[in-house]
Design goal:
heterodimer, A: alpha/beta, 8-stranded parallel β-barrel, 10 helices, B: alpha/beta, 8-stranded mixed beta sheet, 5 helices, 14 strands
Chain lengths: 262, 205
């Protein structure tokens, strides 16, 4: 049986030094406040050395520029990192899938385009296999306590319910679902266990949950109570003084199968 | 020189990078005639069984692979779908004839436990044949990175070099004569995976 996974999320934004544009590693709070924290590839190598199970690279500026800078980052990740990684941000077409996969991405994450053009999920799944199609679902709580899916990096509300949308994505051919609670993003107050559990019990494909990890006990809740296959976190891994290897030891001690570096 | 078969599917770059990291000369091969002159062949692959066989056929690789692997006995390693197509038959989205090097069928994972998810994605411990030169230098039950929905069901258990438990036994690796295949991705399995690739480089079947 597959071990549960810890997946550091590397969020990136374009910055320019002089005339040259480059990708900077950032972390976000509530999808709004952006803090620059370093360089994506060197951080990715540290995560690999700390036994990350996979990585996710997300280009937060993807709608604003061409994919050239992102492709450079992926190519150098593929040369230096021997664990699987997912790439997302601004994917619009099957050509974008081809571009990212042929430059070393193992999986491609799509979000807005899946809502606007659900047939792309099916097409990509048929062409490249379900295993490389990750549908990312960002959602926020409404005043009445229900949840709604938000697209365009949390800027536009849709009428979709995250649980129903996740079920539909599985039907369309997605191989994995990555859910993020925008309310909890960067808050360090814990994962949204209720929604995670609803989605994992409704789906038969793997579910990655994220948004809100601040303590190692939050990961344990995600696995035990949310029944998530994987937990992804950005802020937690960027700012924690605690070593991710210790987090793993805590998770393992809680009786959850997870990789421990030997 | 290792030749990686490029038939338009699969994450070739990662496989190439991993061999280069180990100091090997690697060539990606999209023209079957170039298989002449490589010492070892790697057949990677992601996607669906039927598309894979069709692409191999369209690009003229089937006859060339049969010649080099079965007659010239060039060692070959299939990865993921590249291992699956070495079977007789694949049942992913239809009924497709494979390369037929192993008396095996490719069928869908069918865990009885609903908690086990398909696709099977992630790091999983395997049991391997302790005599196998491809697993030399590994200890206990090492883990590897898997991502798949279908698996190779061997008719002859002797062909199985490694397996894991998924509510039912799943083939993690096959080997016969000069032919080797892994369901997991060695190029994505850190030190354990690099060890397998190194063993393949040194393999003299």
């Amino acid at each position: 049986m597959a071990k549960r996974r810890l997946i550091p999320k590397l969020q990136m934004k374009t910055t320019s030094s002089g005339t040259r544009e480059r990708m900077a590693l950032v972390t976000t709070i509530g999808f709004e406040k952006v803090i620059e924290v370093g360089e994506p590839i060197s951080q990715a190598k540290i995560y690999e050395a700390q036994a990350a199970d996979e990585l996710v690279f997300l280009d937060l500026d993807a709608y604003n520029h061409n994919k050239g800078i992102l492709v450079d980052v992926i190519r150098s990740a593929a040369e230096q990192i021997f664990i699987p990684f997912t790439v997302g941000g601004g994917v619009k077409s099957i050509d974008d899938f081809r571009l990212l996969l042929s430059n070393g991405a193992d999986k491609v994450s799509i979000n807005t385009v899946a809502v606007e053009n659900p047939s792309l999920v099916t097409l990509a799944s048929k062409m490249y296999g379900a295993q490389c199609v990750v549908v990312s679902i960002d959602y926020r709580k409404n005043m009445d306590g229900t949840n709604s899916v938000w697209i365009r990096g949390g800027k536009e509300k849709t009428n979709l319910d995250p649980v129903e949308w996740a079920i539909e994505c599985e039907r369309l051919g997605a191989g994995e679902i990555l859910i993020t609670s925008i309310d909890r993003d960067g808050s360090r107050k814990g994962l949204d266990i209720e929604t995670t559990a609803k989605i994992t019990s409704a789906l038969s494909i793997p579910v990655i949950t994220s948004g809100g990890c601040g303590l190692s006990s939050h990961f344990i809740e995600g696995f035990k109570d949310g029944n998530a296959d994987a937990v992804s976190a950005g802020t937690f891994f960027c700012f924690q003084d605690q070593n991710p290897m210790q987090t793993r030891a805590h998770i393992k001690n809680a009786g959850i199968p997870i990789r421990i570096h030997t | 020189m290792i030749g990686i078969v490029d038939y338009g599917m699969g994450n070739l770059l990662s496989v190439k990078n991993a061999f280069e990291y180990l100091g090997e000369d690697v060539k990606t091969i999209s023209d079957p005639s170039v298989l002449q002159g490589v010492e070892k062949i790697v057949l990677p692959g992601v996607g669906a069984f039927g598309d894979c066989i069709k692409n191999l056929k369209d690009k003229g690789f089937i006859a060339a692979l049969n010649y080099h692997v079965l007659e010239k006995k060039v060692p070959i390693m299939g990865i993921c779908l590249g291992m699956q197509v070495m079977s007789k038959v694949g049942h992913e989205g239809g009924h497709f004839e494979g390369l037929g090097w192993f008396d095996a069928e490719v069928i869908k994972l069918h865990p009885s436990d609903k908690k086990l998810r398909v696709p099977h994605v992630g790091w999983t411990d395997i049991e391997y044949n302790k005599q196998s030169p491809l697993f030399a230098g590994l200890n206990g039950t090492p883990d590897f990175y898997f991502v798949h929905s279908y698996y190779v069901k061997c008719s002859d258990e002797k062909d199985m070099d490694a397996s894991y438990d998924f509510g039912h036994q799943v083939t993690a690796s096959i080997r016969k004569n000069n032919i080797f295949g892994t369901q997991f991705h060695p190029e994505k399995s850190q030190e354990h995976g690099l060890r397998i690739l190194e063993n393949f480089i040194n393999w003299k079947p």
